Amino acid sequence: MNGHAARLIRGVALGISVFLLAVPSAVAAPGPGPAETDLNPRPAVVPALQQWEGGTGSFELRKHSRIVLAKKQVDELGDQGAQLSTDIAQVTGHKLDVSPRIPQDGDIVLSIDPSLADTAGGTRYAEEGYTLTVTDRNVTIAAPTEKGVYYGTRSLLQILLLDDGRDTVPVGTAVDWPNYKVRGFMLDVGRRFFTADYIRDYLRLMGWFKLNQLQLHLNDNGFKGDKPSWSEVQAGFRLKTDNPELAGLASKDGAYDRADWDSFEDTAAANGVTMVPEIDAPAHSLAFIKFRPSLGLNHGDSDHLDLSKPETTEFMKSVFDEFTPWFRSPDVHFGADEYTVDKPRYKDYFNEMAAHIRALGKHPRAWGSLSVMAANADGYDRDLTLNSWNNGWYGPQAMKRDGYSFINTNDALLYIVPFAGYYHGRGLDGKYLYDQWEPHVFPGNQSVAPGDPHLLGAMSAVWNDLTEATYTELDVHGLVEPTFGILAQKMWSGANADVPYSAFLDTVRKLGVGTGLTKVATTLAASASGEVSLGKEATASAGTAAAAFDGVRTTQWASGPGDEAWLRVNLGKPVAISKVELDWAPAYGRDYEVQVSRDGENWTTVASRTGREAAGVDTLTFEPVTARQVRLVGTHADNKQNGYALWSMRVFEVPDLALHRPTTASSSEVPSLGPENATDGDTTTRWASAYRDGEWIQVDLGSPQTVRRVLLDWETASGRDYDIQVSDDAADWKTVASVRDKPTGARVDDLTLDPVTARYVRMQGIKRTTNYGYSLWRLEVRSMSPEPDPA
Question: Which residues contact 515 (CB under 8 A, 6 or more apart)?
Fold first, then answer.
């Protein structure tokens, strides 16, 4: 028996142990435990695990590891087993067989056990929770439902992806569940078409972070503005049917047919996500009015339906009749927001459509608008779920008072209108969301208690108001991705991440967008401190060289068979470098060299390795050298048939001596703009001084160092005249460089110095370029400057 396996948490042990009887030595025998400080800490995944009880040691993928499905559950778990095998291959490079046989050492076991329960997780554990049990011999994911098993596999994949060797999992037991039933994202495809590939990728991305509802806003239109009539305004309806009665309703610039929708539903089901279709009326209805003008107000010159005509409501019912059979979700959304012109008939429409959707076998949803539409909710159907999107239209306190279940989709906090001057046009406020927000939080003193039974969860939203703008679907992804992991964290386990915002973001960057995506890639790939090869031009003897320099941890360069191969990156300019990091996939090199060149023709070997025995990260450091190009030259592969494969090759310039060193300044504008921000390695934080000439910032390098280069990354409030000074004791200062009459505006000053030995380096301001103070994003100090290119 394994003496170091973690004991199971509370009542979960009984349900799992029944299945694990078939796994010899999977559960520890009683005995004295290790010191608490020796236990494995909670693995970093997003969203964070609710509970973790660490053991000691680790599980390691073996050459013959398999994915084993519990007996008699091949039908339920076969697809998940196959998907996990594919995903593990993408994350680790190891291809695991799927088997229904008895588990052996090294296997990963999947099991559905409806009897599993957890007191703290309650209903949420029963519906979507899972238990991940790791010994040094096996990993077991057991859950009451298939969806819970799926979420457990996402945590396992993330743990493997973040492991240096991508093959070990710390021993321990996680019990995990979501705090909220609804963890959603809404995408407005009515105003702007998004391709089917994009939708499928977003379903996979949502599953990666355990978000579980994608609401597609399937129709909408632009604003009239100064256009002479509504006929000139963009309008879209994004479902396309063969029914001749609705021929011409679908948008010509893009619509989804039944095959597309089925693919969405299949992808959603495979990734733990539910599709929530929304067809919005009686406002936002220009697409319906263009199709049938008689249904619109003002003789069709409107984007509001005319509810005084019975045929209007009947037409909308016919639209739902046509498309609801496509939808597998238990919920269908009928919009019903921002219609103010006919309040009495609005109530009739609201109630008729809710009843009609229930008659079609679905639970109705709508946008909350009742505070504007009525003095109270008397007479309104209460058996539906509302999105609380604006406190003035119908806030959470009013919804709670009136007995509605609701979802937090608050516009002030959770709306993105891409590239607009309102509603987070450049993306949501990630730091605010991470530090202060959870699904129960609303602005304007409207927050409800955490876990309020009326609050089902939350949903961020993208609204494509700017119908005439030229941005793309990938531009939208760039706005959404930075806070997707944050929102998932807050919807799943709240403030349970227990790490600072910057550390959490670093984990999100490493996790990227997950596995299996075809259209969407991460936009968060960021260079580590001093890395100079990310995204640079690359070539190789064979294979896709760029994959080694794209910052994506699930892509790799592979050379193909043979002992000899090379991979080269062009840094674009001479750079003083001193380290190369190679993250080897299972097809690793035994013998290889790192070479550098100034001209791409004459090469010098600066580091080499012989007899390497495993995949994983190999860091090669060497005396600083100036290079424009760097290459890996393999001479002996571990397996000649497989050749070489790298997750990444990262080239680092000479280290920044100021990074994370104690930094002080003569003043700070406010405490949050302190001097430490200039040397924290984060390019989004800055130091700003008081609004005076003559301010300074200095860094303590810790010991005397050779200084040859100082880099200052100025914000707009920069120094026009300033000196770079050095000191051995922070008392007597020597000026080693001076800048005078620097132009106004943000810029980087990269100053090369005559070599000087010093412990302290400071920027001594003399005169500012603006009426503000001095402000730096970065202050870097290095021991070497790159030599210029040869003439």
Answer: 86, 87, 90, 91, 157, 204, 208, 554
